[in-house]
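Open question from group meeting: does this chain pack into something compact, or does most of it stay loose? Before anyone orders reagents, we agreed to write out a predicted structure and look at it together. Recording both the input and the output here so the notebook holds the full record.
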Amino acid sequence: MGPGLVPLSHPPADAPAYFSVPTISGLLRRKGFDVSHLSHPGNSRSLRAALYFITVLQMKRPRIYELFQDFRVFDLHLTVNLFDIMYVIAKRRP
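Structure tokens returned:
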């Protein structure tokens, strides 16, 4: 790690509930960092994982997930961006 770079430990699995782009950027600014890169990468997941994320975690409607979970089409994998992973690169101000 170069000078001024601080490693952060891995956040909990439900980190999107804790940080958004504005909140993580504001926190870093207040702590003396400038954000140089922020992105939400896509990730390979099953359609079942996407169905769970959308219906249970986002919509808070587990019954919808239960109705569709046994359909085999949800075993397919694809690259999708659910914006639940955030890469942030920030450098400490001098």
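Observations to bring back to the group:
The mean pLDDT is 83.
The chain has one domain: 15-92.
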